[in-house]
């Protein structure tokens, strides 16, 4: 039996139907649903692979465009990788492969080269470029659907909080339903999602856990997360400035990262052009003062829940010590391979 829910179709299994209906309603902003139809799958990787399969079936094309610095937990051998935030690079890819690109696959916010946030208006313009060339836009919200706001990053744009309004992807991957919860959702236009074969890889316990996550992820909890991120980012800026450390803090909602460089980070090349050797001493000092942080400068920081006063105070107290360690760091000397 096909365990799914659509606005036009019948409810099948009541618990799953109620859950998918709640998802569709949650990701509806100003009467516009992000997804007309949803299917549940066990992993975001499987959902992404299915989205690519559907795009190929719908367009009769074979190639997929992805962005450097994005990671979709699925590697497709027929991918064309272009710089992020670069519409000309996308247009060039279509020009170089006329009639062959089935989809452009993008993370709502990149989190694998630090935070790679879309430039204002980028997503809306990307959707237009893709549509005009007969391809599909696949939005990967695996890392943002439940971390940045009640309707994910798309919801923030659709509601006019950031980015560009009036655009919608053809397909979307939703993930991050809870730590270790084996569940993802693939949604999009009903005519496209309806082509997918039914999947029963998920289980009832995963759905129950995801429902609990949705109940706890309220507007008040997101406001608390934002306040916590604001405080940490402000402390980082102040401490690095006091130590004279060149830095920027790429940010998208409550997600942020550190880049030891004076200029903004717009793409993967920018993220790698920095004094990354400052980060290991910084991270060690944070841990030594009771505030562990991501191990790599290329990982995003997630404020997973509104931190209480003791937790937040511990982080804020550790930051000046860690900034001093970053300031005192020096690059590793190059190895001498001479005979």
From TrEMBL:
Belongs to the class-III pyridoxal-phosphate-dependent aminotransferase family. Keywords: Pyridoxal phosphate. One of its GO terms (molecular function) is pyridoxal phosphate binding. The keyword Disulfide bond does not apply. Pfam families: Aminotran_3. It comes from the Bacteria. This is Aminotransferase class III-fold pyridoxal phosphate-dependent enzyme. PANTHER family: GLUTAMATE-1-SEMIALDEHYDE 2,1-AMINOMUTASE, GLUTAMATE-1-SEMIALDEHYDE 2,1-AMINOMUTASE 1, CHLOROPLASTIC-RELATED. Its cofactor is pyridoxal 5'-phosphate. It comes from Pseudolysinimonas yzui.
